Amino acid sequence: MNPDFLTLISAERLVALQAAGVAPVIVDVGFDLVDVEAGRKAWQEGHVPGSVYLHLEEDLSGPKTGHNGRHPMPDRDRFAAVLGRIGVAPETPVVALDRQGGVYAARLWWMLRWMGHDDVAVLDGGISAWTRAGGALVTDVTSRPACPPYPVRKPLTRQIDADSLLARLDAVRVLDARAPERYRGEVEPLDAVAGHIPGAANRFHRGNLDSDGRFKQAAELRVEFEAWLGPESARNVVHQCGSGVTACHNLLAMEHAGLRGSALYPGSWSEWSSDSRRPVAKG
Q1: Which of 193, 194, 201, 197 minimizes the C-alpha distance to 169?
Q2: Which of 102, 120, 132 has the alpha carbon at shortest distance from 26?
Q3: What pTM did the predictor assign?
Q4: Which residue of 57, 84, 105, 216 could cross-link 147, Cys pair, CB 3.0 to 4.6 Å?
């Protein structure tokens, strides 16, 4: 396991790796929930040299049924083919980045670990940090040699489905990464029902970042999460959000803080609220 590729990598370190000719596979996953082509367009207009683009809905999500959330997890074989297409093999270091504070990069980070891939990090501060560190942006497209589909490996992550979560609501600590007004049920711009999972606490994912758009220091994050978690183990935490994307940001922040082993509820609120038999809380 390469210590450079565990949770976060600095832009300065990535610039140095590129200059030394040992750059990892760099994957831009910038996205906009309102304008779903905005991320691809931004990548086309200027991206980190050598980077490839993956689309949240086309590459990082599976088919929607109306009852499995807005961004359901894809079939592992399908995602294995995506990784092979962009040249990711088990020994390949990967850096995920975006322009949205690491929200979508964290989703890719979690998915690679879900596939059993441990050499993956999120570019701390994203494109802004890259340019501040002297990194160039280019418009030319670099073709990476493809690999076979990523082999089946044991996941390095934990996840829980809706039925299991419902049965264990009294036994786990649920953390909702959505904006406070959405968590409270005051507004709901994306899903049909407003509110939150009963018993869930709220930590807006942007609270993980400093004013410069980088993640807070690990020690600071640990203090903040432990103030909520108390003496309980991180393994008792279930992360959720609207559709299993921004929840990965909180999960990544906890891992970076050394609080390891929490679980993701991939379907999140968009799946939970699609079934009227599941309880809903507001306020």
Answers
A1: 197
A2: 120
A3: 0.97
A4: 84
User: Is 241 considered catalytic here?
Assistant: yes
DSSP 215: B
Task: From 141, 87, 92, 140, select the one nearest 117 (Cα to Cα).
Answer: 92
Report how far residue 45's alpha carbon sits from residue 30's, in angstroms, rounded to the nearest whole number.
12
- Token pair 């949770």 is found at 7
Helix 247-256 × helix 218-229 angle, to 10°: 110
| Rounded-to-integer distance, Cα 207 and Cα 11, Å | 21
- The kind and range of the H/E element at 220 are helix 218-229
Residue 164's nearest CA partner among 41, 267, 21, 56 is 267
pLDDT by residue (tens digit) across 134-167? Answer: 999 999 998 888 999 999 999 999 999 999 999 9
Catalytic residue among 14, 241, 251, 264: 241
Cβ atoms of 206 and 101 within 8 Å: the answer is yes
How many whole angstroms from its chain centre is CA 235? 18
260 with 234: CB under 8 angstroms? yes
Determine the Cα–Cα distance for residues 160 and 26; give it in Å rounded to an integer. Answer: 29
68-98 pLDDT, tens per residue?
A: 999 999 999 999 999 999 999 999 999 999 9
**What integer is the mean pLDDT of 102-128?**
98
Residue among 105, 110, 111, 49 at smallest CA distance from 78: 111
Distance of alpha carbon 126 from alpha carbon 109, whole angstroms? 13
Place of tokens 């990967």: 94
The token pair that represents 122 in the structure block: 């999120």
Backbone angles phi, psi at 70, to 5 degrees: -80, -25
Question: Which tokens go with 24?
Answer: 């990892």
Are 122 and 250 in contact by the 8 Å Cβ rule? The answer is no
Q: Residue 155 gets which letter from DSSP?
A: -
